[in-house]
Amino acid sequence: MTTMPPAPSLAALLSLHGATAVVTGAARGIGRADVAAALAEAGARVWITDVDEDAGVAAAHALGGRFVRADVAAAPEAARVLDLVAGSDGRVDVLVHNAGVCPLRGALDIDEALWDRVLDTNLKGAFFFAQAGARHMARAGRGGSIVDVTFIDALHPTGRLSAYDASKGGLVMLTRALALELAPQHIRVNAVCPGGVDSPGADVALTTMARQLGTTVEALRAGTTQRVPLGRFGQPDDIARAVLFFATPLSSWVTGDVMVVDSGRLLT
Ligand SMILES: NC(=O)c1ccc[n+]([C@@H]2O[C@H](COP(=O)([O-])OP(=O)(O)OC[C@H]3O[C@@H](n4cnc5c(N)ncnc54)[C@H](O)[C@@H]3O)[C@@H](O)[C@H]2O)c1
């Protein structure tokens, strides 16, 4: 039997002291509160990247982190951002691909521009940011953690979201494919699969859905809350805790996993 070293303390398992983390789409919503905040609280130096410069600068300032403006849908941006981070901090340890767009549109009305915007942001961006991050992690030889934020529709569609669902379903498979390929470099790749979570993006989606269905946002929220087994809408902190699990040594033997965080919604 192999003799194992003593288990680290829980504090050490949850610590990101000395680590550098990059979170895409963290100017607002789940990425800002609380994913970036949780990584900063765990001790990481946090870099926020987003298309929204004003909100991104404010978010980074609030966390004592750094902001770099980037559109994740443009592939060359990934290397530019990660080279900047690695050049400044000398390392990249955690990369969270959280940036995402979620336009509600019936399948018969989706045009090429909308399809490309959704797939380029949610899926292509995830790949090129992961690739750029993994290149630095592999070169440094310390391993790392990549976390993708997907959506429960990646596993079970609910309607009027076919481009979004395709992007998030693709992201689940991308997570698993990269996990397999990058494991020899000790780069772990996992995904969090949230249900409905309070955020500015969710407000826009619910308002659009209410208008399209001839109902109210309040009625939609009440319906969702009644349907989910744990009986409440998600909060950004629910997702941040799952991201923290994957980002820290707490999950050092976990890769290619897809953690559903949805109040039990997929069970119904
Ligand atoms: N809120 C929910 O109910 C929910 C549920 C499941 C999954 N998600 C996913 O969680 C993530 C965060 O969602 P949210 O609700 O906080 O959204 P949000 O719209 O409130 O925030 C998204 C952020 O991403 C940024 N962003 C959008 N396109 C970008 C681009 N091309 N490049 C860089 N930044 C870009 C936005 O500026 C914004 O700051 C998304 O990937 C979303 O699909 C959200």
Summarize the structure.
By secondary structure, this protein is an alpha/beta fold. Helices cover 49% and strands 14% of the residues.
Number of strands: 7
The CATH architecture assignment turns out to be: 3-Layer(aba) Sandwich
Euclidean distance between termini CA atoms: 44 Å
What ligand molecules are bound, each kind once? Answer: nicotinamide-adenine-dinucleotide
Sheet with most strands: strand arrangement:
3-2-1-4-5-6-7
CATH structural fold name: Rossmann fold
Radius of gyration: 18 Å
Structure overview:
The protein has 268 residues and is α/β, with parallel strands linked by helices. The protein has a single domain (15-201, 235-263), classed as NAD(P)-binding Rossmann-like Domain (Rossmann fold, 3-Layer(aba) Sandwich). The chain is 49% helix and 14% strand. It has nine helices and seven strands, in the order αβαβαβαβαβαβαααβ. Strands 3-2-1-4-5-6-7 form a seven-stranded parallel β-sheet, sandwiched between helices. α5 links the parallel β4 (94-97) and β5 (144-149). α2 (29-41) crosses α9. The longest helix has 29 residues, at 112-140.
Write the layout of secondary structure elements.
Elements: H1 10-13, E1 20-24, H2 29-41, E2 45-50, H3 53-63, E3 66-69, H4 75-89, E4 94-97, H5 112-140, E5 144-149, H6 162-182, E6 187-194, H7 200-213, H8 217-227, H9 236-247, E7 258-261
Parallel strand pairs: 1-2, 1-4, 2-3, 4-5, 5-6, 6-7
Helix pairs in contact: 2-9, 4-5, 5-6, 7-8
Bound molecules: nicotinamide-adenine-dinucleotide (NAD).
